[in-house]
Amino acid sequence: MDRFTLERLNEARRQRQAAILVTNLASGVVRLVREDDAGLDRMIEPALAELLPDRFRSARSGLVRTADGDEFFLTVHVPPPRLVIIGAVHISQALAPMARIAGFDVTIIDPRTAFATPERFADVAVLAEWPEDVLKRAPLDAFTAVAALTHDPKIDDEPIRAALAAGCFYVGALGSRKTHAKRIERLQAAGVSPAATATIRAPIGLAIGAQSPAEIAVSVLAELVEALRKRGVVATELAS
After folding, report:
1. What is the helix (H) or strand (E) element at residue 226, kind and residue range?
2. Are 163 and 233 in a shared domain?
């Protein structure tokens, strides 16, 4: 790999952007393709371009062969997924350890100091601050999921708005359909587009009939894993 390509790869890592090193096995030429590259099918062979979106979603490296018979080795670099949980509530106590086992870097944010305590959340970063203050230091990105669980608009609304603006792969919010309808009204009044609010997963979690906090946590984790592995594929379907 030449120095220029390595520098571009390191820059993509610093910016938490997905990238693939494409090695032509016949020529040995290595190229870097970032997921956000515009005009991807003009940068590389169309037959190869068709194969890359699935690799970005699955994060699997390996050998591929195009319909033309050319062979390439794809080395996939995808940022580790993050989960930001808004609200140090009972659901969060179940969701945080489950998400960590599934490979997510978990942070819990809740300005209510009675809830956001290390004693209630072992081995998880817990920040007893307002979400907007935390997100100024640690901005959200496309490989971050946000689950808003406090049921309090003063705490939940701003991180939801920030998550939609950042293009987070998953934005979910606790609450009934009536509660969510009021949430949408507030967000749209604050300037969030109807198209963006339509992507919020609410009521949060897959519809599995969950009742207890642990069951709701299972439904949320399943939903956000689905969203991660289907990024850009079924956005319309999932938002409906």
Report:
1. helix 213-229
2. yes
Residue identified by tokens 């032509």 is: 24
Q: Do 147 and 61 share a structural domain?
A: no
pLDDT tens per residue across all 240 residues of the chain: 789 999 999 999 998 999 999 999 999 999 999 988 755 555 677 888 888 888 998 889 999 998 878 899 999 999 999 999 999 999 999 999 999 999 999 999 999 999 999 999 988 999 999 999 999 999 999 999 999 999 999 999 999 999 999 999 999 999 999 999 999 999 999 999 999 999 999 999 999 999 999 999 999 999 999 999 988 664 434 444
Q: pTM of the entire structure?
A: 0.86
Residue in the block written with tokens 């930001």? 84
- Among 58, 77, 96, the domain-final residue is 77
Among 39, 36, 61, smallest CA distance to 49 is for: 39
Structural contact between residues 229 and 60, judged by C-beta atoms closer than 8 angstroms: no
CA 170 from chain centre, in angstroms, equals 5
